[in-house]
Every structure is written in structure tokens, then in C-alpha cells.
Amino acid sequence: MAARPTHFSEALAAEICRRLADGELLCDICRPARMPSRDTVRGWQSEHGPFRDRYAAARDQQADALAEEAIQIARNADADSVAVCRLQIDTIKWLIAKIAPRRYGDKVLPDATVRVSIGDAIEKGRERVARLRAG
User: Fold this and answer.
1) pTM: predicted TM-score of the whole model, two decimal places
2) In total, how many domains does the chain have?
């Protein structure tokens, strides 16, 4: 049985990034013995800056591919598969919100609006300057 590759290779790095961008999960990419382990890939990210950047871009593209996959699942759902499809879509939504939170994460809105008049702000600023001078 051949050992898993552990030395960085441009060919393996390119394949990993391409497959991630296509929506595959790292655990699936790394499953065959001819591929490096997930730990090895994580190590390469720490050791190889250009790979780390390509990997991050591939992850961003992965979020888009997975979003498209969720749409396909929804389009192909029928009455018998709705519950399973909902679980798959919810899982994909959760993952892409973690991978690309700015684009796919929930938008956080403040709970309350704080209103401060300019006069109040100026007065508080004066009080703070006075405390700093005294202090």
C-alpha cells in the first residue's frame, strides 16, 4: 500500500483548490490514498502562503458552488423527499454561512438605536478633558 503524499506539490495543490471550488468537501477530496490527508493540507496552508491564498479563494468559490447545489436540491424535491431535502439545504446553508459569512451569513441588526445629541456629546467630551487635566 502506497503512503499518502506529504510533500507539497503544485499539482496536488491545484487539484485540491479546483475540487474545493467545484463544491467538494475537503474530507472527500482527501479520502483516496493518492491524496494527502486533511492534516497535511492544513499544514500546507501554514507553510505555503501562495497556497493559503489560493485555498481561501477556492473556499469562497466553494460557497457559491454549494449554494447552487442547494438550489438544485430544492428544484428536484418532490413530496416524498421534502424533509430530507430540507435537511440537506439547511446543512448547506449553515456551511456556506461559515465559509463566506459576508455573503451568506445572517445580517446582524442592532437591537436598539442609541441617540445622542451633539450638545450631550460635546458636554461629555468637555467633562472627560477636565478629568484628564485634573488627573
Assistant:
1) 0.73
2) 1
